[in-house]
Amino acid sequence: MSSYFPPGGPAEGYDAPSTHAAAQFAAHPDILTTPQYPHTNSVWHYSHQPHMPPPETPHAHFQMASAPSDRRKHKRTRSGCFTCRSRRVKCDETHPICDRCSKGNRDCVYPPPQVRRTGSRTNLGAAEKPPTIPESESSDENNGGTGKSWKKGTEKKEELKEDDHPSSVSPPVSRPRATISRSQSAQSLVRRKGRPPKSPSDAHGRDNFPISDMISTISGCGNEAATFECSLKGISNLPGVSKLKYDVQFFLAYHRHIITFRHYFMRQDAQSFITKDLLMYAVQYEPLLYAVIGFSAYICSIRHPNGKLYTFLKYYNKSVTGLLKSLSTNSTHHDAMLLTILQLATFEEYLGDWVSVIDHHQAAQRMLTELYTPEKINENEFRRYMFLWYARFDVVSGILAGSEAILSPEWYIACESFAVEEEAKDPGNINKQFYTCAIRTRRVGMDMASLIANASRMLISTEEFERQNHDITARLDKIQEAWNSLASPDHLVMSFPNKVPLGPDDIVDPYVPGRIYDESYWDVNCCLVDILGTRMMHQYQTGLFLQQLDLAELQSDALELCGLIETMERWPNKPKDWIIQVQSSLALSTLFIPSDEKHIMWCRKLLAKVEQFGFVYPSAFRSKMADLWQLPELRWWWLRNDEGCPKLVREIREWTGERELNPRDTFREDVRDLKTMFWRMSVDDTSSSGSCTSSTLTPPTTVGLYSETSPSELTP
Asked: Would you say 579 and 262 are in contact if contact means Cβ atoms under 8 Å apart?
């Protein structure tokens, strides 16, 4: 998928090798320079100290064995059209339409050519010189077009014409890119190596999944059909929407009707940002339009029994191609570009492709700091939610890789201070309370990532580690106290209609009165899930470093979290897509539950449901859970005999699996492998059946914190 790489090397703390042999393309340089940390003596970075990679642990045999790599398919030509390759037939590679597609009246889409640009970087050694720069989707699109207007993503407009846009609408911020040389080159916005799936289910491309199929499916759904018809009319207020092709209108309407703030891991206070602001920008900037409708088409395809990869990948391809061309021809950056990058990153996270997410995350950081300052980002609500969107990627990628967030801490501090002040002005406003809770959680996550990164590099003493750890714990307590203020006793669920009698497979009593809030205060439940998940991750990471890991307490917290999730699942009026919001905390809790069949099966069913809603867990998570639970079949699907597995999910896994085989650097490798989630954990074969898993755990890098690094067996 996409692939950004700073020309000066990866950001500080990424531990990347000096050579980039795996790179295939180069992206526009102006947003891709190395993210710089401010020169300060704060605990978040140590710019004046020499770089010291984490030492090897002397007990590698105690670590969880990596899942054996799947056998790779035989290589095929990568120059044939996408349609023939997805149908698993030979393409004669006739341009612009191959013979098979011409005879079958199918769309014929070729991968873009690899074209080298002139210019050089004489200051780089041979091993560091970047590879080629892709131009655009076809040679026709490469000719002409100056990109002087921010609304004009590419010269060739198929669905969106420039004169469709009202001249009165413009982005809040648009700045010249004068600080970076155009002769610089970097890793491409998109890795064109990827291939469509080799699945017979995609035999006829999009012809098996016309828009009419989706309309007929919705038409049989009663109230949903009527609501969707209203939604089609509801997008008529978007500038120029009537001149868009019907498939684009359809997926815009689908986004407004089906896609919610939950799909973006936000709260109800962000609904206007997702359904109004994002779409308003999308119809005025073609790359963002394709990114948005591509994501919408993906969610639609997952729900449809005949969903195809091609349905949404064609929009994804147009988005990254248009964005790349826009970056190479425009002299300014603007909000729509940043939104496009964030939307593509969200798309890739859903596909389980975290290596590509990191590429977009780094590009978004560069553009964010170019357009705004920590003070200006808080000037209006639109910017604040754009920052909230970015900050999640910044924090999660840092935590997963055991590295610090790449955005400097003053951004998080400024945003938290602003949120607290705004909430104090209007204490009864629950939307402001949700926003404050989200910002505080992200700042705590940023500090957690920085603490673990500094400790693993031996940059702080044990005493300093404990001091910062105590501060983080105190702030987590404060966040939970603030959550209590969100509570409204009138909305507590005290009884359940149509109770199902508890059976031997139930792991908790889900009908405990007062455990959750009803649908009016549903996000209060999701906030609590996030808080509990953050606490568990903090306790797990710091316990390893301090050699004070309490697995019994972690198991108790995991069961509390699972009980909350199960109660939410039993509530009949729950939002349809609620499970997506709790996917990360659910995944973390699976590490610490009892390892008996009852608890494992409960987890497997919930993990399967998350993927059925479109969020595909990374392959590393499935493989390592298969090792942890000693169930090899989990590498393919969560339930036995592929029960409930959408065929589209299988195709996505095959497609993304080829992309993550050779990450460019150790940072991407650490994120891909979920480094901190499975730190030094391996299943002890001596653990008895039906008991808690006995895990062997060693601190990540104990030199500098401990005098001894031998592992100890900890059993709850």
From this structure: no
Q: Which range, of 218-227, 299-308, 563-572, averages the lowest pLDDT?
A: 218-227
Nearest-angstrom CA–CA distance, 269 and 259? 15
Whether 65 is covered by a domain: the verdict is no
Compute the distance between CA of residue 450 and CA of residue 432 in angstroms, rounded to an integer: 27
Chain centre to alpha carbon of residue 149? 30
Range of the domain at 398: 393-716
Domain assignment of residue 291, yes or no: yes
pLDDT tens column, 139-166: 333 333 333 334 444 444 444 443 344 3
Of 235, 333, 338, nearest to 293 by C-alpha is: 235
| 153 domain-assigned | yes
Coil, strand or helix at 174: strand
Is residue 315 within a helix (H) or strand (E), and if so which, with residue range? Answer: helix 309-329
Residue 48 belongs to a domain = no
Degrees (nearest 5) of the Cα angle 392, 393, 397?
120
pLDDT tens track for 389-414: 999 999 998 888 778 889 999 999 99
pTM for the predicted model, two decimal places: 0.70
What are the strands of the beta sheet with 682-683, ordered from one edge? 682-683, 695-697, 712-714
Q: Are residues 342 and 414 in the same domain?
A: no
CA 23 vs. chain centroid, Å, equals: 22
Are 444 and 551 contained in the same domain? Answer: yes
Same domain membership, residue 410 and residue 363: no
C-alpha count within 13 angstroms, C-beta hemisphere, residue 624: 24
Neighbours of 21 (CB within 10 A): 10
Give the sign of the dihedral formed by CA 432, CA 434, CA 437, CA 442: negative
Q: Which two tokens stand for residue 430?
A: 């629950």
| The token pair that represents 437 in the structure block | 């809770």
Peptide bond into 96 cis (omega under 30): yes
Q: Of 5-14, 527-536, 569-578, which range is least confident?
A: 5-14
Q: Are 436 and 423 in contact (CB under 8 A)?
A: yes
> What pLDDT, on the 0 to 100 scale, is given for residue 573?
94
Structure tokens at 396: 């999660």
Domain final residue pick, 371, 402, 425: 371
